[in-house]
Amino acid sequence: MSKILVTGGAGYIGSHAVVELAQAGYEPVIVDDFSNSKESVLAGLRAILGRDVPCHHVDCGDAEALRGVFRQEGNIAGVIHFAAFKAVGESVQKPLAYFHNNVGSLLTLLQVMPEFGVENLVFSSSCTVYGNPDALPVTEATPTKPATSPYGRTKQMCEDIVHDVSGASSNKLRTILLRYFNPIGAHASAKIGELPLGTPNNLVPFITQTAAGIREKLTIFGDDYATPDGTNVRDYIHVVDLAKAHVVAVQRLLDRKAPDTVETFNVGTGHGNTVLEVVQAFEQASGQQLNYSIGPRRPGDVPAIYADATKAETVLGFKTETSLLDSLASAWKWQQTLG
Ligand code: UFG
């Protein structure tokens, strides 16, 4: 069984990846500082997997503590680096915290990995690196645009760092960069899911909290975009599908099928949906009527973006399986367990 270090493994995407890795026969080991996750996630993982997943309460930016994890675990075959701050608005208010945490933890990881002979890395990137694209859908070759937030800049910087480090002959590093589109939903068991702290920034947790009566109504940020119904278009991917992309990426690295440098993949469904379509699909999936109104545009939102998912399908053999309706049904089921 290959041991995979999962930084941010107690987070939303990380926890779902831990489940898929374990069920695919890997031995995931979590590293998380719990700055944006809860210890209760570990109980959810135990409930799904029927056993404990080893977890180190460590900040990835702490080189000595991270070395301690590598030393104690031994024989780590690869790392999936999820750990990062991810709130776009907060990153504008606290840019230093974002650069320090997101860039700093990657640098520390890249420093420590070779000390223990670990050469395989999967890195969590984002479709935010494309900015507002000139043409849709975006392929991996679509040029990146200047980021619209410090958060987006950290993802671009991290991609650049990985390229530079992999390109240096003194380093042995094989990396797969996964550019996520919009992850939504929860594990079918409803034992793990998204746990937003405070008021959610993202659409789906805001919708489910509104339906649960926690929020009064959803405000749709603008309906005057040049899209089919005037609201923004995004590519909403079920979080379990996204988690599975990490399993195939890890497999590819361990099988030595990846080149000795960097490979980049979009991870999305290949389909765009408007905000209004998501609201309607949620109503259908949940049987709830959603209270919403149209508000002004949100600064920084791109009008439309969705993935060309061809490369992930042809090279990784990865294809999403869950419909928007089922994804939203899982989000609603999870919300109901939260009360
Ligand atoms: N939206 C609303 N009302 C809300 C929340 C969101 O109308 O209360 C709309 C947004 O305007 C957008 C869509 O729902 O059109 C999705 O918004 P999210 O905040 O859920 O997701 P984003 O597409 O803005 O952001 C996501 C990730 C970021 C990443 C970004 C890249 O959350 O981490 O994609 O485009 F940087």
Summarize the structure.
One of its GO terms (cellular component) is cytosol. With 339 residues, the chain is of the alpha/beta class. It has helices spanning 12-23, 40-49, 63-73, 88-93, 95-115, 150-167, 203-211, 239-254, 275-286, 310-316, 324-338; strands at 3-7, 27-32, 55-57, 76-81, 120-126, 174-180, 182-184, 218-221, 233-234, 236-238, 262-267, 273-274, 292-295.
3D architecture notes:
This protein has 339 residues and is an alpha/beta fold. It has a domain at 3-184 and 237-267: NAD(P)-binding Rossmann-like Domain (Rossmann fold). Helices cover 40% and strands 17% of the residues. It has eleven helices and 13 strands. Strands 3-2-1-4-5-6-11 form a seven-stranded parallel beta sheet, sandwiched between helices. A two-stranded parallel ribbon has the order 7-10. A two-stranded parallel ribbon has the order 8-13. Strand 5 (120-126), helix 6 (150-167) and strand 6 form a beta-alpha-beta unit. Helix 1 packs parallel to helix 2, helix 1 packs across helix 8 (239-254) and helix 5 runs parallel beside helix 6 (150-167). The longest helix has 21 residues, at 95-115. The protein starts with a strand and ends with a helix. The mean pLDDT is 97. Uridine-5'-diphosphate-4-deoxy-4-fluoro-alpha-D-galactose binds at residues 86, 88, 126-128, 152, 182, 201-203, 206, 218-221, 232, 234, 275, 298, 301. This is UDP-glucose 4-epimerase. Homodimer. Its EC number is 5.1.3.2. One of its GO terms (cellular component) is cytosol. Pathway: Carbohydrate metabolism; galactose metabolism.
Compute the separation of the termini in Å: 38 Å
CATH superfamily of the domain at 3-184 and 237-267: NAD(P)-binding Rossmann-like Domain
CATH topology of the domain at 3-184 and 237-267: Rossmann fold
Percent of residues in helical segments? 40-55%
Range of strand content: 15-25%
Coarse structural class: alpha/beta
What is the 3D shape? globular
Query: Number of DSSP strands?
Result: 13
What series of H and E elements makes up the topology? EHEHEHEHHEHEEHEEEHEEHEHH
